[in-house]
Design goal:
With 103 residues, the protein is mainly α. Helix content is 82%, strand content 0%. It has one domain. The chain crosses the membrane at residues 14-33, 53-76, 83-101.
Length: 103
Amino acid sequence: MPVVARNKGVLPHLLRLNMAIFVAMLVLASWSMDKYIDINAEQTLRSHLVMSYVLAFSLVTSLAGVWSVIMGLIHLRAWRWDTLTYAIITVLITWGLTLVTTE
């Protein structure tokens, strides 16, 4: 019978911090996207075309980050191998999207 460690230590605190960071990123990205759309509706500026892609990627990344934190909380509650695989997959997807966003 496998021994399961129940000492979760700092994991809940790190998940809370990660959730706060991703929610702040989501709020800032959505606010910036709203301002960018309002500015381009009034003026026809095409000089900052890359900005729309950066904002869209940051919105998608922050949503994936929130989802990975939710999967981490589900794993923290269940603490089984099947929930661990789902949490790892969402974290890897979020890391990949973060790398795309920061490039």
